[in-house]
Amino acid sequence: xxxxxxxxxxxxxxxxxxxxxxxxxxxxxxxxxxxxxxxxxxxxxxxxxxxxxxxxxxxxxxxxxxxxxxxxxxxxxxxxxxxxxxxxxxxxxxxxxxxxxxxxxxxxxxxxxxxxxxxxxxxxxxxxxxxxxxxxxxxxxxxxxxxxxxxxxxxxxxxxxxxxxxxxxxxxxxxxxxxxxxxxxxxxxxxxxxxxxxxxxxxxxxxxxxxxxxxxxxxxxxxxxxxxxxxxxxxxxxxxxxxx
Amino acid sequence: xxxxxxxxxxxxxxxxxxxxxxxxxxxxxxxxxxxxxxxxxxxxxxxxxxxxxxxxxxxxxxxxxxxxxxxxxxxxxxxxxxxxxxxxxxxxxxxxxxxxxxxxxxxxxxxxxxxxxxxxxxxxxxxxxxxxxxxxxxxxxxxxxxxxxxxxxxxxxxxxxxxxxxxxxxxxxxxxxxxxxxxxxxxxxxxxxxx
Lengths: 244, 195
Fold this sequence. Notes:
The structure holds two protein chains of two kinds. Chain A has ten helices and no strands. Chain A is 83% helix and 0% strand. The longest helix of chain A is centred in the last third of the chain and has 34 residues, at 203-236. In chain B, β7 (144-148), α5 and β8 (175-179) form a beta-alpha-beta unit. By secondary structure, chain B is an alpha/beta fold. Chain B has a single domain (2-88, 120-194), classed as Rossmann fold (3-Layer(aba) Sandwich). In chain B, α4 (125-138) runs parallel beside α5. Chain B contains six helices and nine strands. The two termini of chain B are 20 Å apart. Chains A and B meet through α6, α7, α8, α9 and α10 of A and β6 of B.
């Protein structure tokens, strides 16, 4: 019956702009295929109900997310892929397990019904923010190499010399989130909150879970950013401290 | 005191100077001069340990300076690079950009475009001089001053004031080592090394 609803936009396009009908159809098919695949994976994991399967799924998903982040961020995959992967994994897993075992009152943190959506949410947001953060850091270092050299030449440590650039990356990560948090749900209910309500959670609990997950997203992206920078450092600078 | 003994300075495969020896003493203004591309900047970078020497050595107060130990020595140095006009972000740290609140929701899956940092705007001669003054003020009692073309982007009037600043440093007993082609600076140096 839901498919019938598609007749409305499809009909409108048929009448108004026939060429767009094909694009619309392709988009719908792709969306259906992707959601179906995702749900099949989650269904399989719920059937398995194994912590090992959860971890294997997470390792694979993070690998895909890291590839997307390096590609979208126009970063050199050879230099950045391993550190982006580790940053994403550490950020997502540490905050995810913290939420599942210490914050959200669930009996089993490894239950795929909780593990998968929580990790997906954290990973999705962290990937988005890593694209901004790492690209901001790398392009700032390239555009402002003189500042790094000036600071190094005046005797500050490497860590202190990259601090202005890390600050810029952090701002690139925090400012969209801060802007977003300030208008959250004012005129449209966030999809996440809709999902929690549809799952049958009481409004007050939904409020708490929403807050926990949102704060988790911000924390995970900052952890991922710092781990990525720490690991990528040797690939970005040569042994003389010059930007490679 | 900075001493260079029988040093071979190079960039890639190109030898800039061979068997170079000189001493930059405390309380004196030493000027390295030479034509464009003669290797003044490379020599200064080598003296700071950013680049290695192929033969010979560089020492600071009698202690050997290598690229590995350079950081400890750089803690004794004040450095004014050649491209001072590009240090705008040192004077004016960039601020967070204003964001569209709906652009990156924590619940959506829209991938952002990479952030492209904008190159800093060039500083004016007055700002360059102010940054140099600020750097000297913050340096406290660091014993070695290294300035690469300190007057490159300054007006004649500010060049005189820069010379005054450098003179002030050497009068305080510091080792002042500059690289410059400006006649005024070369003439007022206590010793000149021609590359």
